[in-house]
Amino acid sequence: MIKAIGAVMVILAGSGWGMLQAAKIEECYRQMRYLRKLIFRIRSEVRYSRRVLPEAFLSVGSEAQEPYKMWLLSLYERLENRQGTSLAGIWEEETRTHLPVIGIPQDMLESLIRLGGELGTIDIEMQVRTLDLYLEQMEQKMEDMRTEQKEKIRLYQCIGVTGGVFLAIILL
Description:
Largest sheet: none
Low-confidence stretches: none
Organism: Dorea longicatena
Mean pLDDT: 83
InterPro entries: Spore_III_AB
Order of helices and strands: HHHHHH
Keywords: Coiled coil
Pfam family, one: Spore_III_AB
Coiled coil: 128-155
Shape: elongated
């Protein structure tokens, strides 16, 4: 009887691990969608409202969810108080401080960091084009993720269950 309960617990643990991994993939995609939305809003603030970047960060950041809110408001505060060498340096520091926890792929995080180096030193139209280019790259990455997402979710769930069953058989 105890072996059977142990076997069921091992199978449930394996299944839980598979579900957890699948949830991480879904959360990564959700965070990418939200970040794309924020970048698009910054682009709109710069293009249509003709706001300078610090003001765009304040406007978008005041309505964003954490940790994006803290990231954008920190950018605004440091740029307004001239705390740092350049927009690129401040952007990189704040991005590395606030955004690694969101779970987006490392290549997209590095691309976001590079984006800061391309903003601020050019006119409004070039800033908008730079943001458009980043949004296109992000859209392509999200499309790739979307095609792989279903396969990976199913794979993790199957591995979790079959791994649990395999371990339960071995332990019996």
